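If I may wish for something, please walk me through the protein I am sending here so I can picture the backbone:
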Amino acid sequence: MQEHRRYCSQLLVLLVLFIISLYVVPILGKNGNGLIEVDVGVILDADDQMVGKVSQTCVSMALEDFYALNQNHSTTRIVLHKRDSKGDVVEAASAVVGYLPDMVYRSLINYRDLTSIELPFAAIDLLKNVQVQAILGPQRSSQAKFVIDIGNKTQVPIISQATSPSLSPADNPYFIRGAQKGSSQVESLIAIVQSFGWREVVLIYEDTDYGRGVVPFLTDSFHGISTQVRHRSVLSLSASDDHILQELYKLKTMQTRVFVVHMLPFLASHFFTKVKQAEMMNKGYVWIITDGLTSLLDYMDTTVIDSMQGVIGVKPYVPKSSKLENFKVRWRKRFRQENPDVDIFEMNVFGLWAYDSATALAKAVESSGIGVSKFKKPVAKENLIDLAVIGISEMGPRLLQSLQNIKFNGLSGKFHLRNGQLQPSSFQIVNVIGKGEREIGFWTRKYGISKNLSFSSSKNYSTNNDDLGAIIWPGESNVVPKGWEMPTGEPKLRVGVPVKGGFTQFVSVERNSQTNAVNATGFCIDVFKEIMDHYLPYDVPYEFLPFETPDGESAGSYNDLVYQISLGLKFCVHLQNYDAVVGDVTIVSNRSRFVDFTLPYTESGVAMVVPFEDDDRKNAWIFMKPLNMDLWLTTGVFFVFTGFMVWAFEHRVNEEFRGPPSKQVGMIFWFSFSTLVFAHKEKLISNLSRFVIIVWVFVVLVLTSSYTASLTSMLTVQKLKPSITDIRDLIQSKEYVGYQQGSFVEGLLKNQKFDTSKLKNYSTFEQYDEALSKGSKNEGVAAIIDELPYIRLFLSNPKYCSKYTIVGPIYKTAGFGFAFPKGSSLAPDVSRAVLNVTEKNVMTKIEEEWLDEGATCAEQDGARVTSDSLTLDSFKGLFIVAAVASFSALILFLSIFLYENWDTFASNDLSIREKLIAMAKTFDEEKDNSSDASKRKPPTGEGMAVPATATTDCPQSPATSDSQLAEWIFSPDEGLSTTETSIPIHETIEMVEINEER
């Protein structure tokens, strides 16, 4: 029994030792110190001194710094396994062709850069033989895409600084981008172009995944600010110097002078050297470089920097800190030790991102609780040539989850991964000057362009170039380039001008009979010459070409002339296309679909010219026209209302407002209307009626004065009334209508449903006059419809201005403008010049020279045809004042009346009907308005009492007592005396003897 127990104990000990051997020993690792060793692969380009070597040192130092700070509580230790992303191409290819996944192999066959064949082999070696749980790198976008595919299949996180937007963590779940995406810089580049108002750019980029990845984002963003990508120039990494020069000379012959360059230093070094050789780094050129090149300017050769003077670049902003400065000092020392044959000792943002990526990986490994590196092997099969032979990492998903949204303050700033993507920071804008770069500003997603990163709470997004520091442009120029120039040796700008028989004040074309030279004159021509010769910031040679047939006649309508710019059609075999059209060309919507117009330089609108009529003075009812119907009715109502108010106030106290009902009604109408001519003779007793009449007389005075003035105007000036006031009258009456030959007005009239057979076209002002004089019934027209500039000029002639007038505008247009091809860089520059010309006296001088013929003619500019009658709106204030005065007096009168008859109104013995009847009878009774003193007997003795109702007819003493005088002075007003009741009331009057001085 004891032996049996001893045997079981031994088995138990063996079982425990077996478990320890399975789990504890592997966890302890090779050094047996209790730390879990996590294998991590590093694939970097050992030959790349600017990025690869710098990043290798940064990765090693990142892990050393992390474990030095966390040595007391760290349970893991990353073990790096480095592989070079380049190697012997032939051996690498032969070693892996039979083993690579089919998808990768097919990609390699079609891929241009054969140096990347080593990449899948290095990655598979790390996964198959080392079983790494994560891979740092590679950093080139073209190399990273192969390793990312492998990481997706094996579920091993790939942390790379590849910036190409074509590589997306959303499409590759095990791809962690430890750098800012290339498209994150696009908005800063757009803001720079927008701030200087450049309307065209040329994109120049290298033919790699890195170069092609950002181009679609740039193109769409430039389109969003109405800036055209005029041309795309793609250069191969193996492009020869001759090929680069040939491409540059082609760009030089173009008009655009703004170039956005997106390439890495290897190709950029050759490219910018040739840019200077082609004399394209001179005054007037603009060169903008992207972050990949700007971040590595410190590694460029001095001869290359010398050829880049004046270039503007953007790069991710790295905030300064003491931690960063200390690290740079340690890194330089370490880098010299590891790379004694390298002369470059400058840190770049890619190295900082590599440092922060390694730190992020160490943090993720620590927090994920990762264990022994294991890959889940597939079931054994024969002839396995796929990645399935490697298996799937068991710890990869946990590590990926810890990495995807990690956040901390790193050396590069805020290192925040969101869904596997490093979030973008601010961008620094620099200017290449001297031996390096100079900071000129910043760009942030919230505030746009600024000189510094200190923002007030009220600051808004800005694209103002004043927020940038001073910029030295190519050619050591301080003047902002316009971004567009006429290339040297380019033929003259071909300007088409219309040919017409009349209206020569606007445009006229003549040919020299001997030299056949074209001489264009007129208002429109002079405006164009003034702009091109004096207001454009660059010289543009041009020549005028008439739009005519061989016999000198017009070759078509204005629409045909404008379409010549865009359609490239020739309406006749001898005609040629134009680069611009200048003349009296109206800006309308259907033309703007094919060409770009400048801002208008004339007034806008379409109006009618119609003859005057002089019939109103013969109208028997012309005396009714000064006031419109609403005003007549309102005035009549107020006459009756005012008469009623006066009658109500005077009825009880004034004999002239009493009598039979017919007399009283007549008095109401008579009195108010008599005030119209101030002929009322009735004496007013009540102060309330006097107040109402004072206000009403003022209203009548204003009304009569206005009526007299309006009627006088109608009888004298009304002869200038137009015969037609509405275009709809022409349509309904089917009158003949004229328009200018070749004008867009023809289409406008047809759209307004005019009968085509009723439309007639004319070419001169003389024809206008003849047609209008005849009239529609005598083979003429009832009206001429044309644009305002022509009508103004027509009516400025003394022969016509006394016979015709303007009605309208009846239709809105934008005015005359110059036409250019769609997307032309000249159009916006000429538009700005148009504003300068129209705001200065030079436009006035041109108008006086060609269009000012009205010095002896009555001005009709801006005339509008409206009703000549006075309206109620002009007198609302007067009627409101009169109404308020009358109602205020009425309220006061009723208040006094109710107060005097309160006993009757408040009696409980009478019904409401009886009360109203009693009140009406009281109102109808005449009120005794005589003085109380005249009703009393003279005093007969001291202390004698007499009835108040008794009266004695005694002669008035010459001397009046003080008490009698006082009684007379303070006797109640006629309208305010109390009403006597039917019950006799006796007053006892105490007579006081008064000694009078004689």
Notes: Residues 743 and 888 are 64 Å apart (CA to CA).
